[in-house]
Amino acid sequence: MDRFRSMPMANGAVLVGRSAVDMLQSALAVFVLMGVGYALGWRPDGGPGAFLGAVGLLLLFRFAMLRVGIYLALVAGKPEMVQAVQILVWPVGFLSNALALPGSMPGWLGTVVESNPMSQTATALRDLFGGTAADTVGAAIIWPLVLLAVFFPLAVRRFARLSR
């Protein structure tokens, strides 16, 4: 970090570099997972445009969640605390429709699950890969953009404060 501090570069450059590496790893993991799924018989029904849109939407959500994670890691400060803060992110996955249908849940919990950004993305991905009308894509795009608009500046500001 001392070398980065001595260089004439923007405060967000280190965070953007870290995010770029994470996104490359994520894209590779997505394509390996899809390749294995394809080998096992999975076939997306939405056509090439819907397929590329779904992959783009998935990577957009991943990028937004990376920004949230970077900010939480900067707030945590110490590597030992990052594991404790990571537990705070788990409810996003568990309280989504990725694992269970909201209709099978109590009313209030189903409402929470349906408004979860991950649920919006999972629903849009199912629609795009399944070839059905993708009217859910709008909300699935808005959520990651909102998360990016909130957490990117927060992470840059926090990083700048910590790197002084």
Walkthrough of the structure:
This protein is 76% helix and 0% strand. The chain has 164 residues and is mainly α. The protein has one domain. Helix 2 packs across helix 3, helix 3 packs across helix 4 and helix 3 packs parallel to helix 8. The model has no long low-confidence stretch (mean pLDDT 87).
Order of helices and strands: HHHHHHHH
The largest sheet, given as strand count, sense and whether it forms a barrel, is: none
Strand fraction band? under 5%
Mean pLDDT: 87
Total number of β-strand segments? Answer: 0
Structural class: mainly alpha
Radius of gyration from the alpha-carbon trace, in angstroms: 18 Å
The tally of domains stands at 1
Number of helices: 8
Spatial shape: globular
State the share of residues found in helices, binned by percent: over 70%
pLDDT < 50 stretches: none
Distance between the termini: 10 Å
